[in-house]
């Protein structure tokens, strides 16, 4: 025999209840022996409770009662609940007259929900020629008589059930009311929270059923609530022990007491979805999987009480007094944590009991307050408890670090010693984000990285294309889901919680909004987005003013923009301190040498104690192209410059390259990597732009660039034979001092030298160190271009995503 239990949502009007009839019909056609246990339909129990409450307050309840009656028969003709309605009428009238009701009356009222539900389904089955028999569980399950939360008298109930099923021996489908029972005086009692599930598992136990199937409106038990964690996955199988932990921590399909009768007889429990019969649901058995399961469950509607005082140190019996005082008023403590200094004790109670608990403790510790042993008893409302089931402390650092990186600082945490679970108390406002962060960290599913891209010109636009083209592959290979939730230029932003698509450019133009960077931060917070990265692909100084705010609001930074690293040394340090304080990272590999792995190499050499004595080379891709081509071909300087601009090698304003600022910035960035505290003003720069062309708009400069031809033709011609022009950066001097020497200049070198042989838009960096002596480490390759730069930025994003720092 199988027990099929259907919850309220499965029995609601419309398609639902018809589906239940079909499920039962299918089982019978397959020759299954079944018994059916039902909850009240839809929202019936809550409705009855509300009507009762209104009646007790002498409010007009009749309208709601009429609506209740209409709902029950809305879709069904030819069935009559006059008897039930009459009883309910009398009960409500009595309560209204008395202005109060007892738990006994409440049980009588609520019992009608299950009775109506079971009677209706019995009739619907009979109309389908199924032999169905309405079974009022009050005639079977006998209890100790505690109204509202009765305990079954097992021996008596079991005898009743077995006798009943001997009479209705399997050819008949017993349709049994869940939740309700009766005491030995035949008065109605109810089985408390999750009562219908309890009835079903009691029946399964008494009848030694082969399986209990619990039909709900979800596919089974998930790794987390899918409404809060879109990436949550269904758990196919779990053990009773694991289910028990989940039940305790608020997974509302299960309740500890409903599992015990099943464990006793080793009866499997299957959680199924009435509305998705193709799914096998979650099977709960006594077998424990080797790997163990992990799941997140949440307790809401709780409050944190914090009791503190210097005088608590070493005092005996403080905890006992807290528990005793609260227990006296029936207030349960669910999670408690105490510092080893014993100066502070934090614990969780139900939210609606928090004020009462505080008053009780204030009374209990009145004398301690007076003696200044206790200083604070405070309530922190708006908190939630997240429990990571299946988590032990050996790997707890992973979700914990991820939370901290995402600026979720738990208020309190504790673990169970034998069972594997860790619970954290977090602010309610951070619950959503916290769940997603932990979930992404503990499951082998994709970790979502939420990216805001500022600047979508040559580099930014190419980066977006690269991400969109490869995101799927990266998710498959690396389990990293890249979600671009914001794209912005200097005027507008396009925000999409679930990520932009290939149509982003048109959408930004059409639907983008004027914005401040703060709007992007607010959007990320509102949508509870985790693992945030802001990418600066602008060339704007103004934009770098947003860096500190972004970091303080939980963003890591990646920039191709070099400005932030070359502002004052004070800002440089402030940014690093802010990053450290917020445990955030800033990567900028493309700042020097575009896609070449230069900064990382220098960082590593410096970190490992290698003494770098000089860095010299062609730092600019555009100027490399310009002088390589101009030196070897008989073409005009202006013509080659135009080509470099068109190939996307130059800065948005090409004068930034020609005036030497861009190379100067790169040199300064490398110097600062070596802990030198140089300022931009310390750099000696050969400006390649004649003074009369330095001011004004870019357009007017470009209109006049032919004026450069004569100047550089002369420079070219006055070189020694077999020499070529190169624009170089040179960091030299005693680099163990506070500051180094930084030179940016145009030089003429033999064509056969290392610098002289550089081709195309290649950059070359010679890194001289103490160990390597006169033989420098050389890094050479494309030093500019949108594709290589975007690829470098992409690399930084993946490095952040993979660092475990998300
Ligand atoms: N090209 C290369 O080889 C390399 C470039 N880089 C760096 O890459 C960066 C981008 O260069 P590139 O793509 O050529 O530049 P583009 O001029 O092509 O694009 C710049 C983008 O930034 C946007 N922008 C400008 N100011 C702001 C602001 N205040 N807020 C938000 N968005 C803004 C622009 O929007 P709008 O159109 O509205 O102005 C535009 O979308 C530069 O810092 C450059 O130094 C680094 C290494 C190599
Ligand atoms: N304009 C720059 C681009 C890379 O930083 C260059 O030419 O090197």
From TrEMBL:
Reaction(s) the record says it catalyses:
L-homoserine + NADP(+) = L-aspartate 4-semialdehyde + NADPH + H(+); L-aspartate + ATP = 4-phospho-L-aspartate + ADP
Its Enzyme Commission number? Answer: 1.1.1.3, 2.7.2.4
Cofactors that this protein relies on: a metal cation
Q: Where is the Aspartokinase ACT domain?
A: 305-365
Indicate the segments forming the Aspartate/homoserine dehydrogenase NAD-binding domain, all copies. 455-589
Swiss-Prot/TrEMBL keywords: Amino-acid biosynthesis, ATP-binding, Kinase, Lysine biosynthesis, Metal-binding, Methionine biosynthesis, Multifunctional enzyme, NAD, NADP, Nucleotide-binding, Oxidoreductase, Sodium, Threonine biosynthesis, Transferase
Question: Recorded GO terms, molecular function?
Answer: aspartate kinase activity; homoserine dehydrogenase activity
Q: Which residues form the Homoserine dehydrogenase catalytic domain?
A: 597-798
Q: Cross-referenced NCBIfam families, in alphabetical order? A: asp_kinases, PRK09436.1
This protein's assembly is summarised as:
Homotetramer.
- Explain the purpose of this protein: Bifunctional aspartate kinase and homoserine dehydrogenase that catalyzes the first and the third steps toward the synthesis of lysine, methionine and threonine from aspartate.
Q: Which family does it belong to?
A: In the C-terminal section; belongs to the homoserine dehydrogenase family.
Name of the protein described by the UniProt record: Bifunctional aspartate kinase/homoserine dehydrogenase I
User: Per UniProt, what is the name of the gene that codes for the protein in this document?
Assistant: thrA
């Amino acid at each position: 025999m199988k027990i099929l239990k259907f919850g309220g949502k499965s029995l609601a009007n419309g398609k639902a209840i018809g589906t239940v009839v079909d499920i039962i019909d299918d089982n019978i056609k397959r020759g299954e022996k079944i018994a059916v246990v039902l909850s009240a339909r839809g929202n019936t129990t809550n409705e009855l409770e509300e009507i009762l409450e209104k009646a007790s307050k002498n409010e007009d309840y009749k309208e709601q009662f009429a609506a209740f009656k209409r709902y029950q028969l809305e879709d069904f003709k030819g069935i009559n609940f006059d008897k039930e309605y009459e009883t309910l009428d009398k009960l409500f009238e009595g309560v209204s007259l008395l202005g109060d009701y007892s738990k006994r009356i409440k049980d009588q009222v609520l019992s009608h929900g299950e009775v109506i539900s079971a009677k209706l389904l019995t009739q619907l089955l009979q109309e389908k020629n199924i032999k169905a028999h309405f079974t009022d569980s009050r005639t079977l399950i006998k209890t100790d008589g505690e109204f509202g939360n009765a305990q079954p008298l097992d021996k008596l109930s079991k005898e009743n059930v077995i006798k009943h099923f001997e009479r209705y021996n399997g050819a008949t489908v017993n349709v049994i009311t869940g939740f309700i029972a009766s005491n030995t005086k035949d008065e109605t009692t109810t089985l408390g929270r999750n009562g219908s599930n309890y009835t079903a598992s009691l029946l399964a136990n008494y009848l030694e059923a082969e399986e209990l199937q619990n039909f709900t409106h979800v596919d089974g038990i998930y790794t987390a609530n899918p409404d809060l964690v879109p990436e949550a996955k269904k758990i196919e199988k779990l053990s009773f022990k694991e289910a028990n932990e989940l039940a305790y921590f608020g997974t509302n399909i299960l309740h500890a007491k409903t599992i015990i009768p099943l464990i006793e007889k080793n009866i499997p429990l299957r959680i199924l979805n009435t509305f998705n019969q193709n799914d096998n649901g979650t099977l709960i058995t006594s077998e424990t999987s080797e790997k163990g399961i992990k799941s997140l469950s949440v307790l809401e509607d709780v409050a944190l009480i914090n009791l503190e005082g210097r005088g608590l140190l070493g005092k005996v019996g403080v905890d006992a007094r807290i528990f005793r005082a609260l227990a006296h008023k029936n207030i349960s403590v669910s999670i408690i944590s105490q510092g080893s200094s014993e100066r502070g004790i934090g614990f969780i109670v139900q939210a609606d009991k928090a004020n009462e608990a505080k008053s009780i403790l204030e009374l209990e510790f009145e004398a301690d307050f007076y003696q200044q042993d206790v200083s604070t008893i405070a309530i922190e409302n708006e908190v939630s408890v997240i429990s990571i089931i299946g988590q032990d402390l050996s790997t707890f650092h992973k979700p914990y670090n991820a939370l901290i990186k995402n600026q979720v600082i738990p208020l309190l945490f504790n673990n169970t010693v034998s069972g594997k679970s860790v619970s954290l108390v977090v602010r309610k406002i951070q619950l959503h984000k916290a769940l997603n962060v932990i979930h992404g960290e503990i499951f082998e599913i994709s970790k979502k990285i939420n990216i805001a891209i500022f600047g979508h010109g040559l580099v930014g636009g190419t980066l977006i294309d690269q991400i969109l083209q490869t995101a799927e592959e990266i998710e498959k290979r690396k389990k990293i889901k890249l979600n671009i939730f914001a794209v912005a230029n200097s005027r507008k932003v396009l925000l999409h919680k679930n990520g932009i698509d290939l149509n982003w450019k048109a959408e930004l133009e059409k639907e983008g909004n004027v914005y401040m960077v703060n709007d992007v931060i607010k959007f990320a917070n509102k949508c509870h987005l985790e693992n945030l990265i802001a990418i600066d692909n602008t060339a704007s100084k103004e934009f770098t003013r947003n860096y500190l705010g972004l970091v303080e609001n939980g963003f890591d930074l990646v920039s191709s923009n070099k400005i932030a690293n070359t502002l004052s040394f004070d800002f440089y340090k402030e940014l690093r301190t802010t990053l450290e304080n917020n445990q955030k990272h800033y990567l900028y590999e493309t700042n020097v040498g575009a896609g070449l792995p230069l900064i990382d190499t220098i960082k590593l050499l410096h970190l490992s104690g290698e003494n770098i004595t000089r860095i010299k080379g062609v730092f600019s891709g555009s100027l490399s192209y310009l002088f390589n081509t101009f030196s070897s071909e008989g073409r005009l300087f202006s013509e080659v410059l135009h080509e470099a601009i068109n190939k996307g090698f130059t800065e948005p304003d090409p004068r930034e390259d020609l005036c030497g600022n861009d190379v100067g910035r790169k040199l300064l960035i490398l110097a600062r990597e070596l802990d030198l505290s140089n300022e931009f003003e310390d750099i000696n720069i050969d400006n390649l732009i004649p003074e009369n062309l330095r001011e004004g708009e870019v357009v007017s400069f470009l209109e006049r660039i032919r004026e450069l031809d004569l100047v550089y033709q002369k420079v070219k011609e006055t070189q020694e034979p077999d020499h070529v022009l190169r624009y170089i950066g040179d960091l030299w001097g005693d680099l163990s001092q506070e500051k180094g020497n930084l030179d940016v200049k145009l030089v003429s070198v033999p064509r056969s030298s290392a610098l002289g042989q550089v081709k195309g838009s290649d950059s070359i960096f010679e890194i001289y160190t103490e160990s390597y002596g006169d033989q420098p480490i050389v890094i050479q390759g494309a030093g500019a271009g949108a594709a290589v730069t975007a690829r470098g930025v992409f690399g930084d994003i993946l490095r952040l995503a993979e660092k475990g720092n998300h």
